[in-house]
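Hypothesis: this fold can be encoded by more than one sequence.
Test: take the structure tokens below, design a sequence, compare later.
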């Protein structure tokens, strides 16, 4: 097997007993790094420290990994404009945070006779989100509900900027 010492210097090809004796003399462990190589590569190192560093790197990778949640918004066909705009602002906030949004239109009574009204409402909703989102799943009728899924564009998830509500700007009081 090929043996590498703790500093990364190659010690050459040697038998297992020789490598174990070298590791024992330095009070370190002999760790097999590349078992598929010809000959296999082993390194003399402190295995406890190696395992700790590996776990630390994996924990850091998991911390940087972003989880995507699926947020749900429910609408109905007779929604008023203010309620529609409020739901739209919620959706835009979710999309800027990097979450997917499931928009559900609930049909009541005889509204189910005109599913095109639900499709039109969902198209208006996705148009209202503008360039923040991509329609991941087109509107589909599922029983008494019509469902559409919006996903954030890749650039917005990385930016993670909050949405400003320009319809109601906050006025500051001037001190005079």
């Amino acid at each position: 097997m090929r043996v590498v010492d703790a500093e990364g210097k190659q010690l050459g090809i040697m038998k297992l007993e020789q490598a174990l004796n070298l590791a024992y003399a330095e009070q370190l462990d002999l760790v097999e790094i590349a078992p598929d190589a010809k000959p296999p590569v082993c390194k003399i190192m402190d295995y406890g420290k190696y395992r700790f560093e590996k776990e630390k790197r994996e924990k850091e990778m998991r911390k940087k990994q972003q989880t995507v949640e699926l947020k749900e918004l429910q609408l109905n066909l007779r929604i008023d404009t203010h309620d529609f705009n409020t739901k739209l602002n919620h959706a835009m906030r979710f999309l800027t945070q990097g979450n997917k949004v499931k928009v559900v239109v609930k049909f009541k009574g005889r509204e189910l006779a005109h599913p095109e009204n639900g499709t039109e409402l969902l198209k208006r909703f996705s148009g209202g989100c503008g360039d923040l989102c991509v329609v991941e799943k087109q509107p589909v009728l599922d029983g008494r509900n019509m469902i559409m899924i919006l996903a954030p564009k890749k650039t917005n998830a990385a930016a993670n900027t909050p949405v400003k509500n320009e319809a109601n700007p906050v006025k500051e009081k001037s001190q005079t």
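DSSP finds five helices and eight strands in the chain. The helical segments are 16-25, 47-64, 81-96, 115-129, 154-159.
Hypothesis status: open.
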